[in-house]
């Protein structure tokens, strides 16, 4: 789960990291009042769950409270479009007004879970303020990585190593090392999947300060962080993802695909992705119904899949255990009738009540091809996708 910068900033502050003085505002007048309190020279920042705000006009330096008010008025109530949002952007309901910092150097610092190593990894770079993916792509030697230890944490000497690799001036070495150690505590104690400070700034007077703050909390750990869970802002999320979350379904949108996939289980989702690719297509999305046994949730899952306008064909791959095939089949049929969808479906069902499930599907009169297993589903998928490729005038 993503939270806003002003919320992440507060967490950093609580853990002893140096951050600019700031306040949050929902109206231009409030923004002006915060700017007055901070002394006039401020930066006004749109609060959205997306990076790249600077280049998109969502970060503005104001030299007076009046100017801060004007910038806030221009941002609030609009949708900000950045390279990380869709073309429709995300709504700006709040702005953060922060004391302006005099920047000498912009650095990069983040912590993520490294899936291969199975530990948190600190990533640092002298190339701050830019798109880190681009740095990783073009100049990977400029990324410095240090793995933490799940039991020991991050050793003080590691923190000092990272500060040294960042080339911070002597005046800021100690403070930077402390900042890194504290950021590691932020990561672990809040069950984060990501913390990112871009830029970490060396100030003109030789200090260090976290100028931007991004924190993602691991969804599966939210149950033990009620205070963090309360920061959930549904408005910042894609409508379909929001609906899925509301029904306890895991929905993942993928770019450039045309197959809508309904599966139960993350492992099955992976296998389904492989099979879809083997069949010559790409998934447009994944909807994991998990162990859902209620028909209503299956129906909502199906509605979400057909609401994705990229979907041209639906692949249902079910290994029924707790979820019963007949319930899923009936859910699919109900939702298909209700939505009036004409999308073809390929369905592979095994496990509990698979035969009953297939019977419900075959008697429904809908465009559904039942397959016995995943390999069979792939064959059907390939046949169905092949003519569309020609008919629609080539590759996509
Ligand atoms: P992002 O573009 O969404 O990542 O937003 P950031 O908070 O990282 O701000 C983008 C850029 O604006 C930073 O890299 C800085 O160059 C600039 N910026 C942000 N705050 C300040 C500030 O207080 N003073 C100055 N001079 N520049 C700032
Ligand atoms: Mn940034």
Write up what this structure looks like:
With 396 residues, the chain is α+β, with helices and mostly antiparallel strands. It has three domains: 1-20 and 102-236, D-amino Acid Aminotransferase, Chain A, domain 1 (2-Layer Sandwich), CATH 3.30.470; 21-100, ATP-grasp fold, A domain (Dna Ligase, domain 1, 2-Layer Sandwich), CATH 3.30.1490; 239-388, Succinyl-CoA synthetase domains (Rossmann fold, 3-Layer(aba) Sandwich). It contains 13 helices and 18 strands. It has helices at 5-14, 28-38, 65-75, 132-138, 156-165, 170-189, 226-229, 239-246, 266-278, 295-307, 325-339, 354-362, 374-391; strands spanning 22-25, 42-46, 59-62, 79-80, 90-91, 95-99, 103-114, 119-125, 143-147, 192-203, 208-210, 214-217, 250-253, 259-263, 283-288, 313-320, 345-351, 368-371. Strands 7, 8, 9, 10, 11 and 12 form a six-stranded antiparallel beta sheet that branches. It has a six-stranded mixed beta sheet with strand order 13-15-14-16-17-18, with helices on both faces. A four-stranded antiparallel beta sheet has the order 1-6-2-3, covered by helices on one side. α11 links the parallel β16 and β17. α10 (295-307) crosses α11 (325-339) and α11 runs parallel beside α12 (354-362). It is elongated and about 75 Å long. The model is unreliable at 389-396 (pLDDT under 50). The chain binds guanosine-5'-diphosphate and manganese (II) ion. Guanosine-5'-diphosphate is lined by residues 43, 45, 51-54, 59, 61, 100-101, 103, 106, 129, 198-199, 211-212.
